Amino acid sequence: MKKTMVEVLSILITAVVAALIFNQASGNKIQAFQSYEKIESVDVRYNVEFMDIEVLRYYLGKAGTIVLDARSKKEYMSGHIPGASSFSIVEFDTLFKERGELLKLGSIVIVYCAGPECEDSHMLAIKLSGKGIKDIFVFKGGMEEWIGSGYEVAGKNIY
Amino acid sequence: MFKTRKPSKDKTVILTCRIILGSVFIFASIDKIFHPEAFAGILHNYKLLPDILIYLPALFLPWIELIAGSFLIAGIFVRGSTFILSSLLLIFILAITINLIRGINFDCGCFSIIPGENGSTYFLLIRDLFLLIPGVLIYLYYKKDRR
C-alpha cells in the first residue's frame, strides 16, 4: 500500500508540473486560484458581449444581422425567434464548415439558447469567437424570455 | 517443487484492462486540456464546488487523467495509476448521483466540453460503473501478474 501511495504521489506531481508548464505556454491560459465567474456582462477574453431583448428586437431584420439558435435542431423546429437560423452547438464543426464564411460577412452575430440558465449560447459564442468571428452578442434570456414577453415565435423555417 | 507460473491468459486480461481504462482516460482528457475555461464552466454546472475551487480541478484534472492513463498503458506505476483512475471514477459516480438526486440537468464534460455530446446522465452513470471493473481487476491481480 505504501508503494502504491508513493506511485500515486509521483503521478500527481508529474501531472501538476505538466499542467503548469502547458498552462503557461497555452493560448487558453487560466489562473488556478482565481474565483470562477460566470460570463455575466462583457467577456473580453472571448470578445463576447450580452444583449437584452429590446436591443435584440431593434437588430432583428436589419441588414447584416445574423441570429443563431444554439439549441438542437429538434428544439429549433419546435419554435424559434423569427429570422434565426439553426446552429446547434452539437454540430458546430459541420455547420461552421458549411456556413463559416457567411457568418464572417455579417456585421453582427446574435446567439441564444433555451433560457438564462442554459450555456449553449455562451459556448457557441466562445467557439465562434475562436474561429475569428467578430461582434458576437449573446441574448441571455433565450427562448424563455422571448416567449415570456409574448413575441412572435417562428415555426418550421430551418434557414 | 516448481513454482506454478500464472497462465498467460491472465496477463492478456490485465493488459486488455490496462489498455481499455488507460485509453478511455487519455481520450477523455484531450478536449479538456485544450479548453480549460470551457471545462471550468462544466465543473461549475455540477454545482458541487465553491467558485474559488473551480479552476483548480479544471487545470489539473485533465492532466492527471492523461498522465495516469498513459502510465497505465505503458506499464509505469500501474497500481498507482489504477488507484487514481478508479478513485476518479468513484468521484464522478458520486457527483453524477448527487445531481441525479437533486434533479439538476447538467453536462458531465467527460469526453467533450461541447454540451450534449456526452450522452444522458443515466448512461454516464452506468458507463462509469462498468469502467470500475477493469480498474478493480488490475488493482487486485496486477501484483500476481508480475511474478
pLDDT below 50 for ≥5 consecutive residues: which ranges of chain A? Answer: none
Briefly note the CATH topology name of the largest domain in chain A. Oxidized Rhodanese, domain 1
Radius of gyration of chain B (CA) equals 17 Å
Number of strands of chain A: 5
The CATH top-level class label of the largest domain in chain A: Alpha Beta
Biggest sheet descriptor of chain B: none
Low-confidence stretches of chain B: none
What sequence of helices (H) and strands (E) makes up the elements of chain A? HEHEHEHEHEH
Instruction: Give the DSSP E fraction of chain A (strand runs of 2 or more residues).
Output: 5-15%
How much of the sequence lies in strands of chain B comes to under 5%
CATH architecture of the largest domain in chain A: 3-Layer(aba) Sandwich
One letter per element, helices H and strands E, the order of chain B comes to HHHHH
Characterization of the model:
- The complex is a heterodimer of chains A (159) and B (147).
- Chain A has helices spanning 2-25, 53-59, 73-77, 92-105, 120-130, 142-148; strands at residues 48-51, 65-69, 85-86, 108-112, 136-139.
- With 159 residues, chain A is of the alpha/beta class.
- Chain A folds into 2 domains: 1-34; 48-148, 3-Layer(aba) Sandwich (Oxidized Rhodanese, domain 1), CATH 3.40.250.
- In chain A, strand 4, helix 5 (120-130) and strand 5 (136-139) form a beta-alpha-beta unit.
- The longest helix of chain A is centred in the N-terminal third of the chain and has 24 residues, at 2-25.
- Chain A starts with a helix and ends in an 11-residue tail after the last helix.
- With 147 residues, chain B is an all-alpha fold.
- The chains are: A alpha/beta (159), B mainly alpha (147).
- At the A-B interface, helix 1 and helix 5 of A face helix 2, helix 3 and helix 4 of B.
